[in-house]
Amino acid sequence: MEIKIEKTGERQVTLILIGRLDTSVSTAAEREVRPLYDYFEQEIVIDCTQLEYISSSGLRILMHIAQQGWINHCEIYIQGLQPNVYDVFKTTGFVHLFKFKD
User: Fold this and answer.
1) Alpha-carbon distances of 96 from 10, 18, 26, rounded to whole Å
2) Can you list the domains of the chain with their CATH numbers?
3) pLDDT digits 0-9 by tens, 65-82
């Protein structure tokens, strides 16, 4: 699992998820995404184009990002879900928690 956070605009930050976001990497991944919690009134894009798999532990991390984003008045978007990852979002109801970008 590789995680990158890039400032992609004046008011936009992108979180790039690469590989598998599962229980084996969830503790390290939670630490790596914490800098997102310091952004206020930003658009946060979670780029899942290269995300191959997500487990319930990975979904929990995304939920924490969303909760902190809402507290910080950020807009949270998911971008580039692969069909198998989209199926997990759909099955768990996460499609209703996030906005999606093309």
Assistant:
1) 27, 23, 23
2) 2-101 (3.30.750.24)
3) 999 999 999 999 999 999
The residues near 98 (Cβ < 8 Å, ≥ 6 apart) are 46, 62, 66, 76, 77, 78, 89
Helix (H) or strand (E) holding 44: strand 43-54
Give this prediction's pTM: 0.95
Amino acid at 70: W
The CA distance from 99 to 4, in Å, is 20
In tens, the pLDDT along 79-92 reads 999 999 999 999 99
